[in-house]
Write a structure and sequence with these properties.
Layout: H1 14-23, E1 26-27, H2 40-43, E2 47-51, H3 53-62, E3 67-72, H4 83-94, E4 98-103, H5 105-112, H6 116-132, E5 138-141, H7 146-156, H8 161-168, H9 176-195, E6 201-206, H10 210-222, E7 226-231, E8 234-239, H11 244-253, E9 258-259, E10 263-267, H12 271-284, E11 294-298, H13 324-332, H14 342-348, H15 356-365, H16 369-380, H17 386-411
Parallel strand pairs: 3-4, 3-6, 4-5, 6-11
Antiparallel strand pairs: 1-2, 2-11, 7-8, 8-10, 9-10
Helix pairs in contact: 5-9, 6-17, 7-9, 9-10, 13-17
The protein binds tryptophan and iron/sulfur cluster (SF4).
Length: 418
């Protein structure tokens, strides 16, 4: 999966690798060869890690149902930094996934103190961006979704304060609403499986969201009635919380199986088949039958001035309402991977892989792989100098933003606040 277009492939960031192995996240290369075609966010090294993405890749390959869900906190205007995860969602929907977008207004209100009216205003803009990128699927605002909030309550029966403290460092001073917004996100991630049907679900996020993913995976498991495990020569179906009639039904479904007080041992058979059958029985007895959700982790696009891209630092990013002149100025003022002097740069070449402008091109502005490779090659070889490169990038960004504004305009009518 390491193409020449992946600027990080030769020196994968040690920090990321360490983080991953600490938390049990797998490098994305471990699903190599399953997807019929690699999307550019994988080929270009933007998506770097995953949990259980294999089941999603297989669902795509085998044309089986799956869900894709992510969320946006409406704490400011959407900007360039949000586009990558939106594109990931759109791509998965194009591969056959059922799309879900949650506007995390409860979180914005609880954690960032954003007034509800602002949550609506920003939330609508996020949805407009998604539609502008070609999104098809469901959307909702957390605070308006009764079924979601009921699911959050159900999920809350499986989480206690010490777990929140361990995962998030919550203290005695943490507002209860903050805890509520956490459990609402857990419900978000499980929601597609109650709104539509239980199926593998992938949640594309940045690494900062992994605590939520871990918590949710735990809750999904705890809300199951059964666990199914492969043992030597048989499959063990264990009741954690199943009504006796449900366990009895598992037993009757498999002639030759043995029933004990809280488990049934099934000789032979395939674990996936038994899992599917047990899930069906669980659901028919009022259980959730959740699949443990999967996730992918992407790198963040750097801010135009280096550092983080964030709406709280206006120079670091570009929103879609800014006038052309401001857009051009921001690109022209961006940090580059250029050398101290022209002579040095001609001789040694620039450092595209550390250059915010190159990464802006890589993330969003140059779709064609060979065109991007050519920019990188000319930069490395000292042929392309930053002044010229900035001008060319500014033109691309302007063309992109103009087109994107039009598309947002054209999709405004699709946005629903519900
Ligand atoms: N907490 C996320 C953020 O800060 C937003 C969010 C809410 C989310 N619910 C989600 C992300 C579900 C992924 C999945 O941006
Ligand atoms: Fe970055 Fe372009 Fe300068 Fe290379 S030439 S360092 S890609 S701005």
């Amino acid at each position: 999966m390491q193409t020449p277009m992946n600027p990080w492939s030769s020196q994968p960031s040690e920090d990321i690798e360490k983080l991953f192995s600490m938390f049990g996240i797998e490098p994305i290369g471990s699903i190599d060869g399953i997807l019929p075609t690699n999307p550019s966010f994988i080929g270009r090294g933007v998506v770097v890690g995953h949990r259980d993405y294999r089941v999603i890749a297989e669902a795509i390959r085998d044309k089986k149902p799956f869900h894709i869900l992510t969320g946006f906190m409406p704490s400011g205007h959407p900007h360039l930094g949000h586009l990558m995860v939106m594109k990931e969602v759109v791509w998965h929907v194009q591969q056959g996934g059922t799309g879900y977008i949650t506007v995390a207004d409860r979180e914005a209100h609880a954690v960032r103190d954003i007034p509800w009216r602002k949550c609506d205003e920003y939330g609508k803009e996020y949805l407009q961006c998604l539609y502008a990128l070609g999104y098809h699927g469901k959307t909702y605002f957390q605070s308006r979704n009764k079924r979601l909030l009921d699911l959050a309550f159900e999920a809350a029966t499986r989480v206690n304060f010490s777990e929140l403290q361990a995962i998030y460092g919550f203290s005695d001073e943490t507002a209860l609403a903050h805890a509520e917004s956490v459990i609402t996100q857990v419900a978000d991630i499980l929601y597609p499986q109650i709104e539509s049907m239980p199926a593998p679900t992938v949640v594309p996020v940045g690494i900062d969201q992994d605590p939520h993913i871990r918590l949710t995976r735990g809750v999904a498991h705890k809300l199951r009635m059964f666990t199914v495990e492969e043992r030597e020569g048989y499959i063990s179906v264990r009741s954690k919380d199943a009504p006796p009639e449900a366990l009895e039904e598992v037993y009757r479904r498999y002639p030759g199986s043995k029933k004990y007080e809280a488990h049934v041992d099934i000789p032979g058979g395939r674990c996936v088949d038994v899992s599917a059958e047990v899930r069906r029985i669980e659901i028919s007895h009022g259980g959730f039958g959740f699949f443990t959700p999967s996730s992918t982790y992407h790198r963040f696009i750097p801010g135009l001035q280096g550092g983080k891209m964030s709406s709280s630092v206006p120079e670091s990013t570009i929103t879609f309402t800014e006038p052309d002149e401001v857009v051009r100025k921001k690109v022209m003022a961006a940090l580059t991977g250029g050398r101290a002097t022209l002579a040095e740069q001609k001789e040694q070449g620039g450092e595209p892989d550390r250059c915010p402008l190159f990464l802006l091109n890589l993330f969003h502005m140059v779709e064609d792989d060979s065109e991007l490779a050519e920019i990188r090659r000319r930069c490395l070889g000292g042929e392309l100098l930053c002044g010229q490169c900035k001008k060319e990038t500014a033109e691309r960004v302007l063309a992109f933003v103009r087109d994107f504004r039009e598309k947002m305009e054209a999709s405004a009518h699709m946005v629903k606040v519900e």
